[in-house]
Design a protein that fits this description.
Elements lengths: L10 H13 L16 E6 L7 E5 L2 E3 L5 H14 L9 E7 L27 H9 L6 H9 L21 E3 L5 E3 L6 H7 L4 E8 L23 E2 L3 E2 L5 E3 L19 E3 L17 H8 L3 E2 L15 H9 L22 E4 L8 E4 L6 E6 L2 E7 L18 E2 L5 H13 L7 E6 L25 H38 L1 E4 L2 E4 L4
Parallel strand pairs: 4-7, 8-11, 11-12, 15-18
Antiparallel strand pairs: 1-2, 2-3, 5-6, 9-10, 13-14, 13-18, 15-16, 15-17, 19-20
Helix pairs in contact: 2-3
């Protein structure tokens, strides 16, 4: 989300905004049409008729109210509204830092800013980010601390929340602690255990901003190139990716040459209608996703904005999906305990996409090397889903793809197999909980509170607690009674004389 740094570069601009706002009495005020030059013209009042004006200065639209602090505050409100187990996701905030041109030449390149013109102390980017998002911020310092001791961080979770092997290398230090210099924790660890939902990083930083020392921000904001990596991609006229795709069928190595988790590219111009078919993916967007690259939308669709017509944008989002086929998953059949409760990869009409299937059908299984996430095989034998894990040869395991690239490698392995048209089981089901897809036969739904099925414990624990409370109450009662008896005995030896209390000496 590109945002300019607040630049203290032109007192004349601040004076201009102040004078326009001070002399404006409402819509249609003559002050709004007054301007020092043709290149600096206020055009509307924003956000209300009583708010500060929006100024069009060359190619810039400026307002004194739209600050970075306001934007982070809006993001904080959004995160509060979506703080549920089903609504929570990780939000990436990417900051492209630009210097504004001068008021005299707004369309010319910005000048090199001096130290006095860049933000200082409390106005730094990290200070503003921490001001609104500190409790939700996953920082470089946190990542470094976790990488230094995986046993007490990434590995101190349920087995299905441990980061997939093969994407990072580990070593042991002299204290015997496992550490890594690469890799990231799972989303489940970040959101549900540490309650972190925002990752902020630098994108591009203009040369004119070199006086602004971003090193002071790097404990809270990731350095440039960390959470974004521009990928050079070319497309054919039919939407196929000619070059830049991360999927080569000749190798299954996970290297920077063939994998980049934060790679992104802009698809070619998209001609989406006002009422597109959401079941038909946009080919250039879909193919870019299958290449392991995030499609970056940097254009308006169908000549409209999402608030006026969201359908073209919904079609774009649907095209970025790589797992479920359009219209999937279907509801489980109530008449059967196995129908529509397991997942298969199909070849038609959406090659490599997933559909629901009957767990009782005998099919082959998708098998993955746990140390090589891009190495997949399809089992030679068939079975029902409940026995599918026995079909994979060691060290391969029955698995489900976790990324678009893993899915492509599985699809390629399937197409090389002896039966490329028969559906293949992947390890995903809703046998235990309806409408909640989990990995493995005994997988637990992450969106439901765990219940204690040990009936003995359910009864014994409250009973013990009740007994302890009763004993404490009884002790309190007897101690109080004993204390009162002592006081009563002492009181017998006391006498009152003219309002004064005297205690007699026993004879």
């Amino acid at each position: 989300m590109p945002q300019p740094v607040k630049v203290r570069q032109a007192d004349s601009l601040s004076s201009l905004i102040s004078s326009i706002w001070t002399s404006s009495s409402g819509p249609g005020s003559s002050a709004l049409s007054a301007a020092p030059s043709a290149s600096a013209q206020p055009i509307i009042s924003y956000p209300t008729t009583k708010g500060p004006p929006l100024l069009q200065i060359g190619r810039y639209n400026c307002t004194s109210q739209m600050t970075f602090g306001l934007l982070t505050g809006l993001l904080e409100d959004f995160l509060d509204e979506t703080a549920t187990t089903t609504g929570a996701t990780i939000t990436f905030l990417n900051l492209n830092i630009h210097a504004a041109a001068t008021l005299a030449d707004p369309d010319q390149p910005a000048p090199l800013l001096s130290q006095a013109q860049v933000p200082q102390s409390d106005d730094t980017l990290s200070a503003i980010v921490k001001g609104n998002l500190s409790s939700l911020l996953y920082t470089p310092a946190t990542l470094a601390e976790q990488r230094a001791d995986l046993n007490s961080s990434w590995y101190d979770v349920e087995w299905d929340n441990i980061p997939a092997g093969g994407y990072y290398s580990t070593s042991k230090n002299t204290a015997g602690n496992v550490f890594t210099e690469s890799g990231w924790p799972t989303e489940a660890l970040m959101e549900f255990q540490q309650f972190k939902r925002v990752i902020v990083g630098f994108g591009t930083v203009d040369k004119q901003m070199e006086a602004y020392n971003i090193n002071d921000d790097l404990s809270n904001i990731f350095p440039p190139g960390t959470i974004t990596r521009e990928r050079q991609v070319s497309f054919a006229s039919d939407g196929q990716v000619d070059s830049g795709c991360y999927f080569p069928s000749s190798t299954d190595a996970v290297t920077s040459e063939f994998n980049a988790s934060f790679a992104r590219a802009t698809p070619p111009s998209i001609n989406a209608g006002q009422n597109p078919d959401l079941m038909s993916p946009i080919l250039s967007v879909s193919n870019l996703t299958r290449c392991g690259i995030v499609p970056f939308l940097n254009q308006s669709l169908a000549g409209t904005t999402a608030d006026k017509n969201p359908l073209p944008y919904a079609a774009y989002v649907h095209s970025t999906l790589w797992s479920w086929a359009p219209g999937q998953p279907l509801n489980a059949t109530r008449a059967s305990s196995t129908a529509n409760r397991c997942v298969v990869m199909t070849n038609s009409p959406y090659p490599g996409r997933w559909e629901v299937g009957d767990c009782a059908t005998r099919l082959r299984a998708a098998c993955q090397d746990p140390g090589k996430p891009y190495y997949w095989e399809v089992s030679a034998d068939k079975s029902e889903y409940t026995s599918a894990e026995t079909l994979c040869r060691s060290p391969l395991q029955f698995a489900v793809p976790h990324t678009a690239l893993e899915n492509e490698y599985l699809y390629a392995a399937w197409q090389r197999s002896s039966a490329p048209d028969e559906p293949v089981f992947v390890d995903l089901n809703q046998l235990g909980t309806a409408d909640c897809w989990v990995i493995g036969i005994n997988g637990t739904c992450p969106y439901l509170q765990s219940t204690d099925t040990n009936r003995t414990r359910i009864v014994v624990v409250p009973t013990i607690a009740a007994v302890i409370i009763f004993v404490c109450a009884a002790l309190t009662f007897f101690i109080k009674c004993a204390s009162n008896r002592r006081e009563d005995r002492r009181g017998r030896g006391r006498k009152m004389l003219d309002g004064w209390e005297y205690e007699g000496v026993p004879s």
